[in-house]
Amino acid sequence: IFNPCTMLKFLFLFVCLTYSVVCHAQRNVHDLLPEHTFTEGIEGPATDREGNIYAVNYQRQGTIGKITPAGEHSVYAVLPGTSVGNGIRFGPKGEMYIADYVNHNIFKITRKGKKVKLFAHEPAMNQPNDLALSPVSGYLYASDPNWQASTGKLWLIKPNGKVILLAENTGTTNGIEVSPDGRTLYVGESAQRKLWKYDIRQDGTLTNKQLFYSFHDYGMDGMRCDKKGNLYLTRYGKGTIVILSPEGSLLEEIPLKGKKPSNLTFGGKDRKRCYVTLADRGCFEYFDTDFPGRE
């Protein structure tokens, strides 16, 4: 005899089990480096062609730390004056870009040397925070939050260092990433717990802003895409990494040891290892992924 109530119970149980398996699958999470090797300002991780990993604020504020594939770590560079770094990205020629959130700068370090050069300066910035680089045009994008006002801006930085305002009076822009095909810009607004996507025009400007995903609790910070276009997003305060499909579906949520993940990068021999910076632990945690990072 068909019983609608029984069928609904089985359907509810199936949905719950499916959600648990898909969204809360366990991965082995490991530590990289002892706790507090970096300050609580550890941020902006990026990986170069040789597999070295970099992050800002190694041992003290204003530095950039380098971790080799063998696990050796040291100061790679020191930013000038009172500058303090946040996001790091590598350009197509291996050059490093660093957002200086104190003095409204974007710095550049070439592969040939460790000399820190000013690449772009914009006094109208609140504090350039995270960076994203288009794999197609080579244009840089910078988030720019105003934490006190819970607002933000978005900036485009051309290869010649020209800075263009893309959006203002947004929410608190923080994490930022470009899709592997260079057509979409993802921007997280931390205070509002909303993740937006924009279409990228050929000239690098933005159009067609759409809500991509939203959360009801905790914050968000840095993000990266894998080569399939899946978006890995840090849940600051919750201590997890969320993986979202290009269509905006929640694929997985990975629990970490620390509670304040600030950003992530892909590394390892095949770029299928995700390294996460933890502000409350001052070190990295890492886990293996199904697909390599896009950069």
Characterization of the model:
This protein is mostly beta strands and 295 residues long. It starts with a helix and ends in a 7-residue tail after the last strand. Residues 4-22 have low confidence and may be disordered. It has one helix at residues 4-23; strands at 30-32, 38-47, 53-58, 63-67, 73-78, 85-90, 96-100, 105-109, 117-121, 131-133, 140-146, 151-157, 163-170, 173-178, 184-189, 194-200, 206-214, 223-225, 231-235, 240-244, 250-255, 261-267, 273-278, 283-288. Strands 1-24-23-22 form a 4-stranded antiparallel beta sheet, with no helix packed on it. The chain has a 4-stranded antiparallel beta sheet with strand order 2-3-4-5, with no helix packed on it. A 4-stranded antiparallel beta sheet has the order 6-7-8-9, with no helix packed on it. It has 1 helix and 24 strands. It is globular, with a radius of gyration of 19 Å.
The secondary structure category is mainly beta
Backbone shape: globular
Low-confidence stretches: 4-22
How is the biggest beta sheet arranged?
4 strands, antiparallel
Following the backbone from N to C, one meets helices and strands in this order, namely HEEEEEEEEEEEEEEEEEEEEEEEE
Quaternary arrangement of the chains shown?
A: single chain
Task: Compute the number of helices.
Answer: 1
For the CA atoms, what is the radius of gyration? Answer: 19 Å
